[in-house]
Amino acid sequence: MTQESQLSRLGLFDARVPRYTSYPPATQFKPAIGPAEVAAWQAAIAPGSAVSLYLHVPFCRRLCWFCACRTQGTQSDDPVRAYAEVLLTEIAQLRDRLAPGIELSRLHWGGGTPTLMPPEMMRRVAGAIFDAFPLAKGAEFSVEIDPNEIDEARLDALAEAGLTRASIGVQDFDPEIQKTIGREQSFELTAQAVEMIRAHDIASVNADILFGLPHQDSVRISDSVQKLLALSPDRVALYGYAHVPWMAKRQVMIPSDALPSPEARLGLFNTARDLFLADGYDEIGIDHFARPGDGLAVAQRNGTLRRNFQGYTDDQADVLVGLGASSISRYPQGFAQNAPATGAYTKAVREGRISVTRGHAFSPDDVMRARMIEALMCDFRVDAGEMKDSFGLDASGLAQIFAPILSRFEDMVQQEPDGSLNVPLHGRPLTRMIARMFDAYDMATTGHSTAI
Questions:
Q1: Per-residue CA distances from 281 to 23, 277, 370 (Å)
Q2: DSSP code of 445?
């Protein structure tokens, strides 16, 4: 039996499972978690702690049809400026709620398109953040940059603020595919943006590229990956396009009959993967690649790779605070999401309220399963010793959890002599499906996308 036929028999090409950037997934969040709970969680953060901060800017000059993020289009800077003023207020409110001496281990601006902010507004927002929470030693400041929405003045502002990592959305360089997904962005424009970034002495460049797009085949994805490699990014996320038009209405613009089959999607991933590996990148988890000196590659070798809402990370902070509409925070006690609608978020902040409208408080079982899923997604291994030390699971308890996985996935998973579970190389396309076996929540209410 070929590997592809075995993967097919085990359901890889039919499965729809979460991406597990969180556990439980955000579809499990409930309105029972609100401002009171979050205020208590924030008050519990010890003075002098290092936390991470995510700032969400939900505006785009254009709405790409493939994107499932919560964004809104604007041709004017006025809504962006008004929103940034609200962010400044929220930053001040957070500063007043947290204990003194808090530092940032990571700061990330995402969207949407954060670089829609004019240069002077970028300076004001960055200045307010760092006045409230200075960067810790070795901290990183990263921003998602749209090559269509960046120039020297805005890069000057970001570089002066201390930007260390720029993240570029590529998706695909093929003109027909770009037109079909509503994201026209030439290789030349992207190369110019990368050149400007490096000219500003910004240390690291990340790039996102997609497989599974309409009209994509092995020749086209090879061409796009080789063009991307010519830009020599330090880190690459190779995400599978999730076609979910029932959730992301703009995706109805994408012809479903032009999408590759699940089997073809696996071939596209493998084609791109082989090119990245041949160029010297380390494979990180299920969908990232990094130069051996990049922080993700170092974290993978050290066993300190983590997973959060941005994907894989080397950030070790226990707290991630989300600012802006729809942003999600993670505290040791649970998840909390701000009001998704910009108007509701703005109203709450202007009234001096925490804008959280839903979330999830962790049970001990959640914490245990979350760590199992994270370990599997990051290291392809659930360590028996860690499970015993951290959660009191003895050999029989662990065997009871692992038994259905070993039965379901046969030689695609292995149990080591010490009781640990690992996924060998040939079974790694099934990683998210295996992780699903640790998930205690109902699939009918769990956010999911294609496994490949």
A1: 28, 5, 28
A2: G
What are the pLDDT digits (tens) for 116-136?
999 999 999 999 999 999 999
Exposure of 34 by Cβ count < 10 A (0-12 exposed, 13-18 middle, 19+ buried)? middle
- Which string of b and e fits 64-86 if b means at least 16 CB within 10 Å? bbbbbebbeebeeeebbeebbbb
| CA dist list (Å): 51 to 25, 86, 228 | 22, 21, 33
- Condensed to tens digits (0 to 9), the pLDDT of residues 273-306 reads 999 999 999 999 999 999 999 999 999 999 999 9
Instruction: Provide the token pair at 394.
Output: 């003895």
Token couple for 373: 């899923």
Question: Which strands form 334-338's sheet, in the order they lie side by side?
Answer: 282-284, 288-290, 235-240, 204-211, 165-171, 135-145, 103-111, 50-57, 320-323, 328-331, 334-338, 356-361
CB 287 within 8 A of CB 307: no
**Strand ranges (DSSP E) for 112-215?**
135-145, 165-171, 204-211
Residues in the chain: 452
Q: What is the pLDDT of residues 40-55, one digit of tens each?
A: 999 999 999 999 999 9
For the segment 251-269, what is each residue's pLDDT rounded down to a tens digit?
Answer: 989 999 999 999 999 999 9
User: Do residues 414 and 422 make contact, with C-beta atoms less than 8 angstroms apart?
Assistant: yes
CA distance 55 to 131: 16
Q: Name the helix (H) or strand (E) containing 434.
A: helix 431-436
Compute CA 265 distance to the chain's CA centroid, rounded to the nearest angstrom. 20
- Residue 422 pairs in a beta bridge with 381, 414
Expressed in angstroms, the distance from the first to the final Cα of the chain is 20
446, 18 Cβ separation under 8 angstroms: yes
Helix axes 384-391, 395-409, angle to 10 degrees: 140
More confident residue, 168 or 449: 168
Q: What is the largest CA-CA distance in the chain?
A: 63
Residue where the block lists tokens 């860690």: 386
Q: Check if the beta carbon of residue 20 is closer than 8 Å to that of residue 446.
A: no
Reading the block at residue 237, the tokens are 């996320």
The pTM of the full predicted model, rounded to 2 decimals, is: 0.94
Residue 444's pLDDT is: 59
Can you tell me the distance from the alpha carbon of 430 to that of 410, in angstroms, rounded to the nearest whole number?
Answer: 12
